[in-house]
UniProtKB/TrEMBL annotation:
Residues 17-34 have a biased composition (Basic and acidic residues). The keyword Nucleus applies. It is found in: Nucleus. Gene3D superfamilies: Homeodomain-like. PANTHER family: DNA METHYLTRANSFERASE 1-ASSOCIATED PROTEIN 1 (PTHR12855:SF10), DNA METHYLTRANSFERASE 1-ASSOCIATED PROTEIN 1 FAMILY MEMBER (PTHR12855). Residues 1-34, 373-443 are annotated as: Disordered. Residues 434-443 have a biased composition (Basic residues). Residues 381-394 have a biased composition (Polar residues). GO terms for molecular function: transcription corepressor activity. GO terms for cellular component: NuA4 histone acetyltransferase complex; Swr1 complex. Residues 126-175 form the Myb-like domain. This is SWR1-complex protein 4 isoform X1. Keywords: Chromatin regulator, Nucleus, Transcription, Transcription regulation. It comes from Sesamum indicum.
Amino acid sequence: MDAKDILGLPKNALPIQEKKSKPPKESQRKPDGISREVYALTGGLAPLMPAVDVNQLKRKAQSDNEKITWQWLPFTNSARKDSLQLYHWVRVVNGIPPTGDYSFAKYNKSVDVLKYTDEEYEKYLTDPAWTKEETDQLFDLCERFDLRFIVVADRFPSSKTVEELKDRYYSVSRAILIARALSPGDVATHPLVKETYNASQETERKRALNLLLSHTKQQERKDVEVLAQAKKISEARKASKASEESELPVLSDIGSLGADKATADTVNPSTNSQIPSSSITAPVSETASVIASLRMLRVYLRSYALEQMVQAASSSAGLRTIKRVEQTLQDLGVNLKPKVPTKAVCAEHLELRKEILTLLNLQKQLQYKEAEGSSFREGSYTETPGTPPKQQSLRAADLDRTFTPDSLSIGGERFGKREQKRKGPAPSSPAQSKRPRKYKASD
C-alpha cells in the first residue's frame, strides 16, 4: 500500500506529460587548418582583423626561369665623402646584381649650419667675450658633430661651458637671419628667432636638477615627510576656515551699512536710541574679511565675488527683507544675477540693491512714525498700576514684521490679560479703578 491507496485516490490521477524531445543539434565539422582548442574557443568564427598578413606566410612559388644566388659584392655609401668601398652579401636574380644607392644612405641626416662672411661678422657678430677664430672653430665643430654640444664642448680648445657655446651659436645664427631678411616680419616665425636661448635659465635648471639627483635616501625620506606634514597643515587650515565661515553670520558690505546708518540718523533720530545698533551697523572687520577671503583665492569668478558682496550687503536685513528686495528687482525687470557680470554691471547691480534696501528701511521707519502718531491721536488714558509698561525698544527681528504699536490695542485690561497668558502670571496688584468718564462741552 502507498499513500494513494490510503487516501483512496486513483493511481493515475495526474496525466503523465510526455517529454518533448529536443531537436538534435547540427554538428559542425571542424574546418581544416584550425586546431581543436582554437575551434572550441572561437567556434570557427573568423577574427575581425587578421593578425598576420597572409602574403607574408606564403611566398609565391619561384618561376622556373628565375635563378637566385647570393654574391659577395662591393658597394659605396653616398653618405660618406671619402669614397670608402666595402663588401656585403647581395641577393642576385638571374645573375643581374641590384643597382642604386646603398639602402641605409637615406638615414644620413645632417644639420644645415649657417655660414657668415667677414663683413657680416664685423658688422653684426662682434662680441668682446668671443674672438673670430673661436667663433669659426665653434661653427666648424657644430657642423661636424651635428650640434652635439656635449661633444663640441669636449673638443673645443678653450674652457667654455656648454651653455656658453649654445648661447654663442644661437645668438650668431639669430643675428644672421635677421640681418639677411628683408624685413623682421619675414623671420618672425623662425624657431631661432621666436624661441631665444636663455643661458642663465638653463644653468639654473641644471643646478636644480643636479641638486635633486644628488639627494640621499635619508634626504628624500625627509622631503617626503615635510611634504606630508605641509599637506596636513593646509588641510587643517582649510577645515578650520570652513568651520569659521559656517559659524559666522553672512558678511556685510560697508557701503550698504553706511547708507542704512545715514538713513536711520536722518529720518528717525528720535527712535535710533530704541533700535539696537547691531541691527543697523556691523563691524568693519567683516568687510575686510570678505576682501581677504577673495584675495586668498587669487583666481575666482566675478559672479562668485558678486554673490559674496550681495550676501554681505544683505546681512543686516532679515529673510523677509531680502525676499522683498528680490521681489522689487523682479518687478523692475532686473535679473537676480546679471547675465554678463562685468565689473561695471556688478557695481551697478550692487548699487541698485543698496538703494532698494535703503528704500525698504525708509518705509519701515515711516510706518513706525505713522503708527506712533496715530497712537497719540486716538486719545490718552491713564495707566493703572497693574498695566504692564509699554515696550520702549524694538528687537532687531521685529523690523521685518509689520509694525503694530502697543497703544493701538483698545482696552488695556484685555491686552494685559493676553500678555499675562503669554508671558506668565502677572504680579498681584490692587483693584483697578474704572477709567474716568469724559464730559462733553454741554455738561
